[in-house]
Amino acid sequence: MRPLHPIDLIFLSLEKRQQPMHVGGLFLFKIPDNAPSTYIQDLVQDIRNSKSIPLPPFNNKLNGLFWDEDQEFDLDHHFRHIALPHPGRIRELLVYISQEHATLLDRAKPLWTCSIIEGIEDNRFAMYFKIHHAMVDGVASMRLMEKSFSKDPATLTIVPPWCIDSRKQKTKKPNLVRRLGHTALNLKQQVTATPAVFNELFQAVQERRYNPDYVSSFQAPASILNQRITASRRFAAQSFAFERFRRIAKALDMTLNDIVLAVCSSALRAYLIGLNSLPSKPLIAMVPTSIRSDDSDVSNRITMILANLATHVADPIERAKIISRSVKNSKMRFSRMTSSQILSYSAFVYAPAGLNILSGMLPKHQAFNLVISNVAGPRDPLYWNGSKLEALYPASVVFDGQALNITLTSYLDKLEVGIVACRKALPKVQNLLVLLEQAIQSYENILNLDVIDVE
């Protein structure tokens, strides 16, 4: 039994029918050329026949304020096998993911599902995995999925993401004394963090008066992005060459994440101008930042940075400079705190924003306009049962008043982009993919960077 972390509890409290709080991943595989015609059916049957024991957190279900082991784990509830209708294009795949990503997870069971999707053009299949954000954050979910794959294409052993090899399982259930000790330690860390947190809160109030790069949780403008949402979702995804972002960052002497935000800002500016809905004040992005200091892969260890996207500025270079300064300012504040202090600080500062999302009391007053998240992914090619992983696209959450989410992750030499939006609130949100490409090209042209192969 493991106690819920305060951030885990927030994610659970925010969930409602039109606001599912799970994250997902779409993994696209290339079937080996010499594979039999029954390859997918054999893979699915092997998974269902697997005797491996589910790995925490995949065998954990809610029990009050704790995660407890599910003693009646039923694989058929979590694992599905479907086939796309002909012709099985990426368009049909994304439509299915949009529909599946809109459905709630059953809280009486461990909060995850997995779908194997066959019938995709060019001899490919996909796996779509979704898991509640209360169970893992982006970094943790990436680590959990990587454990299932191999770097060797000759490895044909199937290890489902929710299982570990029984030959390696040496874990022991913690006894009651140990569980109480962990709970007491968690409470002690939160209490001891309190003085430092209030000191930082006081400094933040002072800093807001004189620092033009300080971004408060009260300055996000009203925008079309900040509407009440429905349960309808649109999922759009695309890959971009990682090197293009790296070269822009080097030319501007900025971090890679600064450039990712700058490119997203340019695309958002163009999208809103096209809808005649660009606010006169800059959009504010909430940027989740990992503070995980170990190799764990459960729970949430993230804080939030508020970034000024400078969408009111027409010049892309000046826009990137403003973004870079605002992010650097937030990171400097967190550098003065321990991870426990950061978590307590974040819970205190963003609690009003969470309450507003939960209650909808102040629909015109949002702490931020959208979420933009960038999660580091695997650098080496990965395989599953001999099939090469060609791409992995993240799918995150949207909220009432926050109808758009842009999540990115790296894989090999690519930056994989997954966009989730409320389909009813934002029209033609898939156009953002085209606008992202145009934004990258704009920076390349301004900086006189040579054109590189984007395949």
Characterization of the model:
The chain folds into two domains: 163 residues, Chloramphenicol acetyltransferase-like domain (Chloramphenicol Acetyltransferase); 235 residues, Nonribosomal peptide synthetase, condensation domain (Chloramphenicol Acetyltransferase), CATH 3.30.559. Helices cover 36% and strands 23% of the residues. The N and C termini lie far apart (47 Å). Strand 14 and strand 15 form a beta hairpin. The longest helix is centred in the last third of the chain and has 21 residues. The protein is globular and about 60 Å long. With 455 residues, it is an alpha+beta fold. A six-stranded mixed sheet has the order 6-7-8-2-15-14, sandwiched between helices. A six-stranded mixed sheet has the order 10-17-16-13-11-12, with helices on both faces. A three-stranded antiparallel sheet has the order 1-5-4. It is built from twelve helices and 17 strands.
The strands making up the biggest β-sheet line up spatially as 6-7-8-2-15-14
Which descriptor suits the 3D outline? globular
Mean pLDDT rating: 83
Instruction: Please give the largest β-sheet.
Output: 6 strands, mixed
Residue stretches low in confidence (pLDDT < 50, at least 5 long) are 165-173, 183-193, 292-300
Give the SSE order as H and E letters. EHEHEEEHEHEEHEHHEHHEEHHEEEEEH
CATH architecture of the largest domain: 2-Layer Sandwich
